[in-house]
């Protein structure tokens, strides 16, 4: 009985895994190419060949031909794909792999990854003021829920810096947070449901530091739709001056990580980056240390668990899983919670129940000298061995 209390198991039906990013590669190639071109144009400053030819592909000199090849030819497309892959921490192949296309399909922040920001800008004040300006309606969300989500999002940043935020109901403020639709006058139109969810401006006067959320999204305060708190944490990072991070565990990754509220925290990289700009707070009161993202190629990396899942082999470590599919040569990293919201991080074992089309996860077996626990652990291992 005691051993059972120390351990917890999660049984997850595999139907969910069919929504995996790897299936996306089955779509027709032209569709993928069109998606990639539109994406790279929007976020990485890619100029497709047809548009370029009229303007710059004229002179017949060697240098002009070389320039033309670089900016107009397939090399330019591949270079942009590589740049995009670098931004997302993917393998830089320059090819539209399944993982690359999956990353392009994820809802994301509207900030371009190709913009030249120059030196990082930061606020000189340590106390910043913010205010909401709600233009139009925010579907389904009560103003009190909106305020709470924003307050909690600020808190993650103030916990690790000497910064303070003060809410202002009426007077002007450093940071104006608003919900906007379509073209809202700043040259970066919103695109309706999905795609770009929000964008923010770097520190500065006027529009500087302001945050805009696409009012047409299905904003929520839970795991359905798009969690306002999760998106706000990322956008507030930009408001403070942070750029995107290629670390898939970072809040500042270009696409959002939607995990449950209680599991949401800044990563080691986020904290390092923000403290580089603003320093450390007088008292550090973090309940949990900010998690580092494991490096796939770290020679000292030991996985928490490895299991088959249909055709794939899945490697688990901390909050993450890597999925290796026999038909694709790139291995995708994802949060375990992105597929199974109830499965905790740092699991002890996982196995696929082929007959039941389910995955079983185990966590919480204490590896101590406690005999009962050891026996229970062995039972679990045997179960895995014979049924797997
Ligand atoms: Ca949108
Ligand atoms: Ca402002
Ligand atoms: Zn962003
Ligand atoms: Zn805007």
From TrEMBL:
GO terms for biological process: collagen catabolic process; extracellular matrix organization; proteolysis. Its cofactor is Zn(2+); Ca(2+). The keyword Ribonucleoprotein does not apply. It holds the Pfam family PG_binding_1. Keywords: Calcium, Disulfide bond, Extracellular matrix, Glycoprotein, Hydrolase, Metal-binding, Metalloprotease, Protease, Secreted, Signal, Zinc, Zymogen. GO terms for molecular function: metalloendopeptidase activity; zinc ion binding. Residues 1-19 form the signal peptide. Residues 119-280 form the Peptidase metallopeptidase domain. GO terms for cellular component: extracellular matrix; extracellular space. Hemopexin repeats lie at residues 294-343. The keyword S-adenosyl-L-methionine does not apply. It is found in: Secreted, Extracellular space, Extracellular matrix. InterPro entries: Hemopexin-like_repeat, Hemopexin_CS, M10A_MMP, Pept_M10_metallopeptidase, Pept_M10A, Peptidase_Metallo, Peptidoglycan-bd-like. SMART domains: HX, ZnMc. Belongs to the peptidase M10A family. This is Neutrophil collagenase. It comes from Clupea harengus. The gene is LOC105904444.
């Amino acid at each position: 009985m005691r051993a059972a209390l120390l351990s917890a198991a999660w049984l997850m039906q595999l139907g969910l895994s069919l929504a995996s990013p790897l299936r996306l590669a089955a779509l027709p190639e032209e569709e993928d190419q069109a998606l990639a071109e539109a994406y790279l144009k929007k976020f990485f400053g890619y100029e497709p060949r047809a548009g370029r030819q009229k303007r710059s592909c004229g002179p017949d000199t060697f240098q002009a031909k070389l320039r033309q090849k670089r900016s107009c030819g397939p090399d330019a497309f591949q270079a942009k794909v590589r740049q995009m892959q670098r931004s997302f921490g993917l393998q830089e192949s320059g090819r539209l792999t399944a993982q690359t296309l999956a990353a392009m399909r994820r809802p994301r922040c509207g900030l371009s990854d190709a913009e030249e920001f120059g030196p990082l800008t930061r606020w000189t004040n340590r106390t910043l003021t913010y205010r909401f300006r709600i233009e139009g309606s925010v579907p389904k969300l009560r103003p009190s829920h909106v305020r709470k989500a924003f307050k909690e999002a600020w808190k993650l940043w103030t916990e690790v810096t000497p910064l303070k935020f003060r809410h202002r109901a009426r007077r002007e403020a450093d940071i104006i947070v608003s919900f906007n639709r379509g073209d809202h006058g700043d040259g970066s139109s919103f695109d309706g449901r999905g795609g770009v969810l929000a964008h923010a401006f770097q520190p500065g006067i006027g529009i500087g530091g302001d945050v805009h959320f696409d009012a047409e999204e299905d904003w929520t305060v839970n795991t359905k739709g798009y969690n306002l708190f999760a998106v706000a944490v990322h956008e507030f990072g930009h408001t403070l001056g942070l750029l995107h991070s290629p670390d898939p565990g970072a809040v500042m990754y270009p696409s959002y990580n939607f995990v449950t509220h209680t599991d949401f925290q800044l990563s080691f990289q986020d904290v390092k980056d923000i403290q580089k700009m603003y320093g450390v707070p007088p008292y550090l009161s973090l309940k949990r240390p900010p998690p580092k993202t494991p490096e796939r190629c770290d020679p000292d990396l030991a996985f928490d668990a490895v299991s088959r899942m249909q055709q794939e082999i899945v490697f688990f470590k901390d909050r993450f899983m890597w999925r290796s599919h026999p038909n694709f040569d790139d291995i995708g990293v994802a949060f375990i919670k992105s597929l199974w919201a109830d499965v905790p991080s740092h699991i002890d074992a996982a196995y696929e129940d082929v007959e039941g089309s389910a995955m079983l996860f185990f966590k919480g077996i204490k590896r101590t000298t406690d005999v009962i626990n050891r026996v229970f652990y062995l039972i679990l291992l045997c179960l895995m061995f014979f049924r797997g």
